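It would be a great kindness if you could assist me with a short task in structural biology. Thank you for your consideration; the sequence and its tokens are set out here.
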Amino acid sequence: MALSFSIPGIPGRHSKGIPQTSQLSTTSWITKWNFDLFITSGRIQNGSEVRKFTQIPRTTVNRQPSPELSRIYSNRQQKRLGRRCDPVKKAANQPWTTKSDQAFEEGIQGAITACWYHSCHISGYHSGRLAEKWSAKFMIGGALVLASLISCMLLLAAKYSVTMLIIMRVLLGAAEGATYPSVQTLLASWAPPLERSMMSTIVFVGTYGGVIIAYPVVAAIMPSLGWEAAFYIPAGATCVWALFWFIFVSDSPRKSRFITTVEKNYIIAAIGDSKSSKAPPVPWKSLLTSMPFWAIIVAGVGDSWGFYVLLTDLPLYMKEMLHMDFSSNALLSSMPFVGLMSFGLLVGFIGDFLSQRGYISTTFVRKAAITTGHLAPAICLVSLSFVECDNETTIALLFASVTINGAVLSGWIPNAVDIAPNFSGTTFGIINAVTTIPGWLAPMTVGAIVNNQQTFGQWRKVFYMAAGIYVVDMVFFLIFASGEEQSWNKVKKTDQLLPGNDDHQCENGKIMPEKNKTESIETNHCQG
């Protein structure tokens, strides 16, 4: 089953008269199961990305190049490509191993990888809106079960048909792409405004937790259990997780069978009328002309571009220019994600702690998180242009940039819930569709820049571009972003609270939430 952990009491609830005891376990469990969701999702995605399916058993040919041939090749490369770093010393008589021609060509590998991102564009909006109108709980659980089944089917597709493999990858991307907007819908119903930074961060660091687990686990199990286990084990874990998910998780506090009266009323009062119990029609004109909404998109695109450069292109730079095979070391590859998770949780805790005590606003938290998470990586990328063959400094800059980038987990990611809780699934579906574009566009752009020109000068252009994008989107976010509910999110009370609404009823001129056996909370006056 997915990784388990305990969530301590949320800071600030003592001051509101809400005890931090087991009475608050439901919110913690909702957060925990969403964390586990992204753990399993990350493992499925990374399991299906194992060497882009080139680890399927192939015949190998061992060749030992002569020293003279190596020297001639090295001299020619030096003249053609300019200055390059000295190779890292390896053990003597290391065999030169190559794959046979049965391995997939680079173009096919690129198509296999890119189709996952393209299908996310398609499923994002529709899944978010469906989660709002139907059930975020069943959208999330169903999508992950479907993804686990497709992950197993990838094995047969990879062996027998490239076309079927691409189709399976499209379906896998569509299934996993449905989870992100649906989780935002769930958070809009469960996360009190002054606790969103921490809850959202705990949920979304699970993505990186899945990566951390995937690297060493795959490396450990493949020699003994075979490469197929890298697909079957995460898929089985996801199905076990889904069973508990469907039993214990609910779409809202009002529908939960396990929540206490104290916690239920606290969450309802904290969220207030910013989240309707029924899905209202989307105000498309107001949404698409909202600058805070576009600020999230711009920040998300810039963040995704820089992140893909750091995590995919920078290791390539280290391999080609510094002769460091960073990706082959599972521990070294996972360390930046550990730093990102730790720093992201720290920023989320500090943001909620200060905002709950009235020292800073939610808008300040979001803007400070983006400034920290984008400016520091931009500085690190520019610095990389000057260190060249200093391997230790390069690794340190990579680790620092990815770690500090974890601050954005309290920045643009929870911001969709801030500005429009009623439409958080729809808005984040659009945002997620757009922000996945750098997943295929950034590697394509980098490839065009450094194609057949693996020089420090060409790579410097890549780093400058990524740093510039970080800074531009940061400035845009600082100018236009907001952490406050937007006017177009508000729903007319006459529409929200019509007779027959199962979640509310009127008594003595007051609109009351669904009654508990012992107590209820007054909210707004009835209309009409």
